[in-house]
């Protein structure tokens, strides 16, 4: 996640763009006039929790929706999503969402979910005004998970999701029972942190966030906006600064992450790369469970920043060794692996999809033992979340499940070694 290739001039340009977006969308002092009373002490009876969760058609959101509706204290979950451009209904999309347990609207728990199509960037969220008022009157916790998850776009491509977040915060501070706004952020807000600093579980300076990923920059703006709202209105804010979410412990991990691209390319190359770093990925179950815990657990003060990463990381090389053992592939140095990959023509992108993340891999190779991923403090998560405290260490059984899933879904084609 290091930004070694940004020049000083580029860093300054990025900083100016981020500051101007933040001040344009959420200027200092801009929240207070809309606020109703939001004492951090606002209590919600434990059996009367009403959640508004955004982005439930996605990977984390669909798993979190299942966990929320299975929670005895949760009475209702408004699952708020944008409309589909292809015209598919929301219930159809929710039924096909990648949660570890499929959504069943007819089950006792499933009946707690109310699927809502809305555009949070539009006035009145472009939804039925009666339903909007029902949500405003009843909601106790807002969990903002929906985001454009695209790592190659510049920060200005995120202005619509940031404007949507602003509108949702305005909604939260006018909702009389709303006790908390939880924002699913990302460790890429620390993409440019100096290597001798461990990222704290607090707001981080803008310089830590400036880098190649407009995505991480946008998440920093989202964090800053929410913290501004919290200090101006007393709205309780929880920032779940999340690390890499790996596949489910039951196997499914939709291909698309850089890891899946590297594994597939390794099969074509005949070897896996050594990657000298730590691996603090959380499984889908841990990420979703932590999000639910951080939403429902009592917290002190107005704002909490929590790193949702594995409290007991393993070396990334151990993970690739587990993959190598299963797939029967040796490990070679990342630089040799990159050399071999670059011999493959770019047009063979199907066999060598790591071409899509080549710039990230080159930076990874260039930083060497300094490490690519930021060092992150991990204290608040285990303190506040039982799921994080009890998260299982990443082990062969889990990694094997992902590889078997990718073989079953024909993402990769490889026969596992018979003894495994
Ligand atoms: N996956 C990770 O490793 C990881 C790591 C750190 C943080 N996070 C954060 O976790 C959250 C969920 O990520 P995910 O991996 O579950 O992503 P995902 O599978 O791509 O799901 C994203 C969700 O957000 C919705 N969405 C996307 N763009 C939107 C837009 N412009 N307006 C409204 N809704 C939009 C999607 O709706 P459609 O179904 O309509 O596309 C979907 O419901 C995100 O905030 C992400 O930044 C993820």
From TrEMBL:
It holds the Pfam family NAD_binding_4. SUPFAM superfamilies: NAD(P)-binding Rossmann-fold domains (SSF51735). It comes from the Eukaryota. Coiled coil: none annotated. The keyword Cell division does not apply. Keywords: Phosphopantetheine, Phosphoprotein. The keyword Transmembrane helix does not apply. Residues 53-294 form the Thioester reductase (TE) domain. Residues 89-108 are annotated as: Disordered. PANTHER family: ENZYME, PUTATIVE (JCVI)-RELATED (PTHR43439:SF2), PHENYLACETATE-COENZYME A LIGASE (PTHR43439). This is NAD(P)-binding protein.
